[in-house]
Design brief:
Elements: E1 3-8, H1 15-25, E2 30-37, H2 48-58, H3 60-64, E3 68-74, H4 96-99, H5 103-114
Parallel strand pairs: 1-2, 2-3
Length: 115
Amino acid sequence: MKYSMFIGRWQPWHQGHRWLIDQRLKDKKNILICVREINKNDKNPYDPIEVKRNIESELKDLVENGRVKVIIIPDIESVNYGRGVGYDIIEHSPPKNIGEISATKIREKIFSKKN
């Protein structure tokens, strides 16, 4: 079974992320969400295990029926490929209202409420 792979920090998961994977789901593709294993800091307030659990909770039905898998991968510096590797590289350009969603602003709201 093949998957459309998405790599990110997902700090936190939001509707822009959902829009992105929906682009492939609506084409009946399975999704592999790769959570980069990064250290917690101001830009990354959640550890990879928390991120994975959050995404799996948000996409529970899709995970349970096998349409979506979520894994943790080592942090990466680049994605590389050679010729004729057997897969496509696809860029999805979101509409303005989705492209304006900011995980930084979401984190600021979350943490301002906690203080």
